[in-house]
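Section 5.1 Outputs to date
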Amino acid sequence: MKSHLIAVRHRRRAQRGWSLIEVLVAVGVIALLLAIAFPAIQSLRDGSRRAQCMNNLRQVNLATQNFETANMSFPLGIHVPPGTTSNKPNELFTWLADVASFTDGSSVDVLEHAATDTIADIIALQGERATDLLHSPRPWARCPADSDASIRNARRSSETDVGDLALGHYVAANNVGICHGLRNGITRAAPNGTFHGIEAEDSASVEDGLSNTVFYSERIYGSFRSSQPFANAALIYGSRGVGNPADPTRPGAHDATFGAAGQVNRFDFTIEGLAQHGVSSGHAGGVIIALGDGSVRFLQQDVDSYYDDNESIERPETTSEYGIWERLIAINDGEPMGSF
């Protein structure tokens, strides 16, 4: 009888369940563990995205070297066929069209006349094959760190015969000021950067040394940047014509290249449109850059720049005024680089 009562007491105790205090303690322990683990998980994700972005830029850099070997020069930042004065959106090919031929190889025959024809011309010649290519995003041209929900696979063109064109994140170094583009036949001061539309540069023309010269970086879509003008992600194949003669901040070339005046991860400009000349990323604290020697590294967003205290569309008057950011972009400033 006594043993039976003891067994009943044990069963009642076992069926009682957890007290409120025990539940709260358990929840608190789980919350603490999650709080400890989340930063580590986020750090792993960020590291993975950064590594993928670096690999993409290495691929772009390698394609650029192969392009130079085959053509004895680097790609033009923007192709402006002789006599072109149009400012129609997305009409001209960019350096990305050239590099694409040396990444996946699928565009060689479609883009073989990119230097002399407009996008509309190519579509007229190639038909559906060209439109399929020009409208398709390329994995190597997309940075996984851009988590903005508004990033699209393509930017809408006002040209009915062109349609949407694929977007990417990688932009080429164009100039130590704003991006340099031909503006209805009128040129600004000669650019100092590797990828512009005046003439094709090569390794020999990069007098400051390939290891001291940035070739490529990245730009997020950025339309979520509140009231500031958004920083367009790059068009893989198209550029906004030769530019708007009434607005020097929209030279056309800024669709696929960058200038020092746009700075790094900056959006709070008083000059409208200036953010679209810069570089930016979803990586915390800076951007990925690819140098001319093939190396890829992370650049802090607080890198020294002439434009830190001189918001302007005009470039510095002398090379001695350059900050590290301008010296990285310039190909022949002759100034010591310093650490970055």
